[in-house]
Design a protein that fits this description.
Blueprint (H helix, E strand, L loop, with lengths): L5 E6 L4 E14 L2 E5 L6 E5 L2 E7 L4 E6 L2 E8 L17 E8 L2 E3 L5 H19 L15 H23 L3
Parallel strand pairs: 1-8
Antiparallel strand pairs: 1-2, 2-3, 2-5, 4-7, 5-6, 6-9, 7-8
Helix pairs in contact: 1-2
Length: 171
């Protein structure tokens, strides 16, 4: 294994988006930005909805939209077995980063026109709900309160904006 290369897996319930060697992983947690390098201390934490960047062992940059999840950094003997061979910065230890996401998409696979339509629909929904079209005591036909409907529209808007940010960002 080249110096500084460690194992990374990014998985969703449906698929493995990436499994291989990397020089770094950059993402957001609820407490701020995090860059993981080989030999990073072990940790378990959350992943906020964000752009995740994986600087692959071959020097290429992989970008993906991750809509929240969890992160594990494991620095133990054999942690990166099958992903990156060899020792990490200390003999006998290797680093493996696992990102578990409910929803994640490679930048190259994001449907930009669909994301733009979703953004427009969410923006319109928020405007409709914010204009007083429904009172705070009323509910929709499914019994959902307007506050929760507004929160859903805000979440849909945030998802669409993240997709567009990731898809439109230059390497």
């Amino acid at each position: 294994m080249a110096d500084g290369v460690f194992g990374v897996e990014v998985v969703t319930p449906e698929q493995s988006l990436f499994a291989g060697g990397a020089n770094s992983v950059v993402l957001e947690t609820s407490v701020g930005a995090l860059t993981v390098l080989d030999g990073h201390m072990s940790l378990i934490g959350d992943v906020a909805p964000c752009l995740v960047k994986v600087d692959q062992a071959d020097g290429s940059l992989l970008r993906m939209a991750v809509h929240g999840g969890f992160l594990q950094v494991d620095t133990s003997p054999g942690a990166a077995e099958g992903l990156a061979e060899g020792d990490g910065p200390l003999p006998g230890l290797s680093t493996k980063v696992t990102v578990l996401a409910g929803v994640a998409e490679l930048a190259s696979e994001i449907d930009v026109p669909r994301s733009e339509r979703a953004k427009e629909a969410a923006t319109q929904r928020m405007a409709d709900l914010g204009s007083g079209r429904g009172s705070k005591t009323e509910s929709d036909e499914d019994g959902e309160a307007p506050d929760s409907m507004l929160a859903e529209a805000q979440q849909a808007l945030a998802r669409a904006e993240l997709r567009l940010e990731v898809a439109n960002q230059a390497d």
